[in-house]
Structure to design on (360 residues):
């Protein structure tokens, strides 16, 4: 018995049509291919299914069956496991122990990466790769680029690192306090980098979801929303204080202009503000958890951790710019470690005793 197995590694069929997989049988595969072609005429996985149907018709009247298995858009490992499980389901439902060989139909080398997984479950007698011919010319190139940017798989692969590279130059200008035309160029490149990151990370849905969450927090009266606003303002103030301190120290100090020194000055000038923002934010979350009846004692660790980290960053950055002594740095490092470990241990012991008493 021959099985024609069409592989859709990134589950375009399920994501775009909602059809449950595996799809088994000629009529079911034809319906699935038409549904995907209607949902997205440019998707090559539709061509894979039509190619499988053509092979099915050519093989008749010999014993032949056809099925479609899909993977997952989450990644190769998850996709491989799902393809393997669906292949086993096809074999169990259609053949029940009968000797089977299969012809695998794919649309590219990426789908063929899971051939060893299929081979471990059924004998592969052939692989058929579908290559879709594209029209030439400027219009075709424009459309291809547009589809490339819209595809969540490819845009994250190329646009994300490109956006990061575009942000490196303006960030260098900021730290070097550049002025004049270089600053204008840096701002322009920074805007391009932010846009490319926005498209590369696919942040449109995330921003929309953040707006919906903010509306929900407003209507339900969550304290953490106020904490977010206050913390953001404090962080901006801390950033301004850090920049002011960079200008002040650079103006009358013999410190070198290295990136490490600049970062240390920035942290030393703004860390108390950043720490205050962290404390306010953690207290906002703790208040909401308490009001909703989900409060746990270990949540109180958060503001204590923030204080410890703030002290460590303050002492370390101060030591780098020669504002504090080595002895002060050592004392703060020890105290920060002790405070963090102690709070964790104390709250854990208290929660364990409370749980024991409740059980009794």
């Amino acid at each position: 018995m021959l099985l024609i197995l069409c592989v859709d590694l990134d589950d375009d069929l399920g994501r775009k049509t909602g059809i449950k997989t595996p799809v088994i049988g000629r009529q079911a595969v034809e319906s699935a291919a038409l549904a995907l072609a209607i949902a997205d005429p440019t998707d090559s996985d539709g061509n894979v299914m039509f190619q499988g149907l053509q092979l099915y018709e050519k093989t008749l009247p010999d014993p032949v069956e056809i099925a479609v298995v899909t993977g997952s858009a989450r990644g190769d490992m998850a996709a491989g496991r799902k393809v393997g499980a669906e292949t086993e389901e096809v074999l169990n439902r259609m053949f029940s122990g009968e000797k089977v060989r299969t012809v695998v139909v794919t649309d590219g080398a990426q789908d063929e990466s899971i051939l060893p997984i299929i081979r471990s479950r059924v004998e592969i007698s052939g692989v058929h790769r579908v290559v879709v011919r594209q029209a030439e010319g400027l219009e075709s190139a424009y459309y291809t680029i547009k589809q490339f940017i819209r595809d969540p798989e490819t845009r994250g692969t190329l646009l994300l690192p490109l956006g990061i590279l575009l942000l490196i130059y303006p960030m260098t200008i900021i730290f070097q306090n550049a002025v004049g035309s270089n600053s204008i160029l840096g701002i322009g490149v920074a805007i391009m980098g932010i846009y490319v990151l926005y498209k590369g990370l696919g942040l449109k849905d995330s921003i929309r979801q953040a707006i919906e969450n903010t509306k929900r927090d407003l209507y339900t009266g969550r304290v953490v929303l106020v904490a977010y606003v206050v913390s953001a303002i404090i962080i901006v103030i801390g950033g301004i204080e850090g920049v002011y301190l960079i200008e002040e120290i650079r103006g009358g100090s013999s410190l070198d202009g290295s990136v490490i020194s600049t970062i240390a000055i920035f942290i030393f000038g703004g860390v108390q503000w950043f720490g205050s923002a962290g404390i306010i934010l953690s207290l906002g979350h703790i208040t909401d958890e308490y009001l909703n009846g989900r409060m746990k004692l270990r949540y109180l660790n958060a503001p204590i951790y923030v204080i410890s980290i703030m002290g460590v960053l303050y002492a370390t950055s101060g030591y780098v710019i020669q504002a504090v002594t080595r002895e002060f740095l050592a004392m703060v490092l020890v105290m920060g470690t002790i405070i963090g470990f102690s709070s964790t241990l104390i709250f854990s012991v208290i929660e364990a005793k409370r749980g024991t008493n409740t059980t009794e």
Notes: The chain has 14 helices and five strands. The longest helix spans residues 326-359. Strands lie at 2-8, 23-24, 64-70, 101-106, 123-129. The longest strand covers residues 2-8.
